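Annotators were shown the component list below and the corresponding predicted structure, then asked to write short factual statements about the assembly.
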Amino acid sequence: MRGSVVGHLILKDWRLQCLPILASVAAGALALAILQRGNETAFVVGSVWLFVALIVIGCMLPIFAIVNERKKQNLAFLMSLPISNMQYTTAKLVSTVGMFLAPWLTMVVATLLIVQIRGILPHGTIPITLILLMLPFVGFCFIAGTSLVGESEGWSTAATLVCNSSYGLVWYFIVKIPALTLTFKSPVAIWSPTALAIFGSELASVPLMLGLTFFLQSRKRDFV
Amino acid sequence: MNRHYPNGLAIELEGVGKKYRFFSLDNIHLKVPEGQIMGLIGPNGAGKSTTIRILMGLVHQDSGEVRVLGHQMPAEQVAAKWDIGFASEDMRLYESETLAWHMNFIQSIYLSWDAAYAQVLLKRFGLRAEQKIKGLSHGQRVKATLLLVLARRPKLLVLDEPTTGLDPVARHEILRELTGVMTDEGRTVLFSSHNTQDVEQISDRITFIDRGRIIDSMDKEMYLDRWRRLRIEVPFGIQLPALPGIIGVKQDGRLAIATSNAFDPDVANAYESTGARIQRIENMTLEEIFVANVEHSREEVEA
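Structure shown to annotators:
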């Protein structure tokens, strides 16, 4: 054996999906470039563009890397290799989550740096910014897990629809929460219990969804 | 023959069952000795692919035991698959990538990859490594898949309808290569198809499967030796007796056709002793044997 087969599958996914990753990083960089200009219009356009870039990559990656592999009948080829269905699931989740995290983390860090260094927004916006930026990651985990477990384009499309239609609604309710908005103009980031609870729930939902995906995959008796 | 596995069997399915809503695989017993080329023939929907997926560990059986190359399946599928080359009709390579990319990918995983043999196969199959998969014809894609399987030199080849949808020239090329590979080494092969000609060309032993049940399994030559069609002239008032080894008689006026699955010259004598006259005793092709076998099995089940 030459290295781990799971490792080879992860590398294979990165090679095959490098274009969408680069495109999302470029789109994110453009959004941040607009955002850091400092005026109100630039802020609105930049932040909308940033979220759109994250949402689009969150929807497209599961389709490209998971759904299409089954739809285009590449899965039988992969499963002829010395791997089990759980190793395939591990490879798929590690590769897609990694591919999403690369542009997501870059954009989160860049956004925080812009807030911190350029001072476009008061530091009091940091908790709500992180809470809002976390949502596309949570949505991505839901779509990726559903695509793997559901084994069909239909399930993946349904998960994408649920997420995309929920973002606006969730954002609307989040920005209405007084505990978050009252500290908005503070010169320092204040993590109120409400902010911590929301951010903590978002963080906890990620391992929960990934764990549920592993559990449901492990119960499958037919894999191809 | 070298015996590396328990009982010298490369594949062993014992009492394997799998139930779906509209189809079930029922009590499958299949033994493929090491070094043998087994043809699995069945009509569409007979259960060939399900059987193969079970022995590859891709589908878990509801009952029964599966051992492949000495490994319990599906639990030990990872260990087993290192030595299995599997290609199926519904297997596709990545369209956006070249054949060379696929060769590098497989080579990066298997130490057993034989780069020189891969080059020989490239030439024999008339393929170009730098060509993208989406630019290949169906026949070329099948050849590319087989190249990736053969060049890793597996101990067991499992081929699920690899010749389906190919033109006669591509089919001939692939069967010729497979025949060469199989005579070349003591490799075990399980080859499924609904095309009896393809299976007949390369198999030592043949198993017929229909409606989720194995209906017959024996050496290819034994099928051809034992199966006969008797054309009998039956005078008015004579009734043909039921004889052992005769699985069906179809009569139209004075002409009757009897099919035997265990032909013995005494059968012809027994008919003639009733006053009937044997016009001709014909050998049957594997396709005719397959069809007669399936019809007989279905009549038995329905009776």
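Statements collected:
1. Chain B has ten helices and 14 strands.
2. Residues 66 and 250 of chain B are 40 Å apart (CA to CA).
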